[in-house]
Design a protein that fits this description.
Elements (H helix, E strand, L loop, with lengths): L2 E12 L2 E12 L3 E6 L5 H9 L6 E6 L2 E4 L12 E4 L11 H6 L7 H14 L15 H13 L5 E5 L7 H17 L3 E5 L3 H7 L2 E6 L2 E6 L1 H6 L4 H6 L4 E7 L3 E4 L2 E4 L10 E6 L4 E3 L11 E9 L2 E8 L14 E5 L8 E2 L1 E3 L6 E2 L4
Parallel strand pairs: 3-8, 3-9, 6-7, 7-8
Antiparallel strand pairs: 1-2, 1-4, 4-5, 9-10, 11-12, 11-14, 12-13, 14-21, 15-20, 16-17, 16-19, 17-18
């Protein structure tokens, strides 16, 4: 694969506040990257720095061999070959669909403009709407116009700031699949910002998790979900529940039983947190005298996966309070009642243990 975007040690200060700090990132040609993180972590600032709307204080950004900035020199936004789609689409209400698309290709001659506009109208299924005004379009149609306008100048990189937040939930997934196929058809490299990790799974090839201006993990979404590199990543993405454990020489003790440790886990300290996914929890038969109740049902809902329960621990007088847990998530076909006490255990698997300050 050919590397299209390279970001090295990028830092951005806004009003004397460090918003991005020494960020490194590479993206191959044709890849779609989803940026996730809490509000204020620097996602949109990163897009703006790439687009040329914010001037970095340090670091380098290169697109397809073109140096956009090096901490001193900064190429103007209009010369970067970067397209951007804003959350509100920023379409011109007084212009028709065709005129909106033509806005970024005014330097082309009339024949070239018409050819490019007609091509995009066809690809984006807007043929019958070319002479319509923006207020006459649905949210999904407006988004297609915004994408057509961004693609018209044939940018090297497309940036999208929460592109699906204004779309009705019923249409969102269908539209994401459709637009992903479109970008792949154009072999377009793209970065999009979202608060919804499920959008990344549908739309992106890679996921970048950000916090406080830093990049915590960058990999395929499936890899990050199976192997988060820190407590912070797993907790933000809500990849499971947390089970406190007391670390011993060869095992860890929890209120749901002992865990056999790997050698690298022993160095986590006296206490660590096990990431537990609902599929890794066993609901034991309470009729068995060997199964002592260790959790209590605190919340019940019904989902397409069966009953969904949140359970809090039952701490005995012999158990340290530091091992208590709450909101342990469990899906089961077994009907339980509120406040019912049950026996839980953990399936043997490759345990993911983290120190909470990771």
């Amino acid at each position: 694969m050919t590397v299209l975007l390279t970001i090295q040690q990028l830092s951005v200060k806004l009003q004397d506040k460090v918003v991005l700090s020494e960020l490194d990132l590479t993206l191959d040609e044709g890849e779609i990257l989803g940026l996730v993180g809490a509000s204020g972590c620097g996602k949109t600032t990163l897009l703006n720095a790439i687009a040329g709307f914010n001037k970095p204080s340090e670091g380098k950004i290169t697109i397809d061999g073109l140096l956009l900035n090096d901490g001193k020199n900064c190429l103007p936004a209009e010369k970067r070959q970067v397209g951007m789609i804003f959350q509100d689409y920023a379409l011109f209400p007084h212009l028709t669909v065709k005129e909106n698309i033509a806005f970024g290709i005014a330097k082309l001659n009339k024949a070239e403009q018409v050819a490019q506009i007609n091509h995009l109208l066809t690809i984006l299924k807007l043929n019958d709407l070319g002479d319509s005004y923006i207020h006459q379009l649905s949210g999904g149609q407006q988004q297609r116009v915004a994408i057509a306008r961004a693609l018209a100048p044939k940018p090297k990189l497309l940036l999208l700031d929460e592109p699906f937040s204004n779309i009705d939930a019923r249409l969102r997934n269908e539209l994401m699949v459709e637009i992903r196929l479109l970008l792949k058809q154009f072999k377009m490299t793209a970065i999009f910002v979202t608060h919804n990790k499920d959008e990344v799974f549908t739309f992106a090839d890679k996921m970048a998790v950000m916090a406080q201006g830093k990049l915590l993990q960058l990999d395929a979404p499936s890899v990050i979900c199976q192997q988060p590199n820190s407590y912070q990543v797993a907790d933000f993405l809500q990849l499971g529940s947390w089970l406190p454990c007391q670390m011993k020489a060869t095992n860890a003790e929890s209120l749901l039983g002992k865990l056999v440790l790997k050698a690298e886990d022993v160095e986590l300290g006296n206490y660590a947190y096990l990431l537990v996914k609902p599929s890794q929890i066993i609901l034991n038969d309470n009729q068995n005298e060997n199964n002592v109740a260790n959790a209590q049902v605190e919340y019940i809902s019904v989902t397409e996966q069966g009953y969904h329960y949140y359970l809090n621990s039952i701490v005995s007088s012999n158990s340290p309070s530091t091992l208590a847990f709450n909101k342990l998530s469990l899906y089961s076909d077994t009907a339980l009642s509120l406040k019912q006490q049950v026996s839980l255990s953990i399936k043997p698997h490759d345990f993911l243990l983290f120190a909470k300050n990771d």
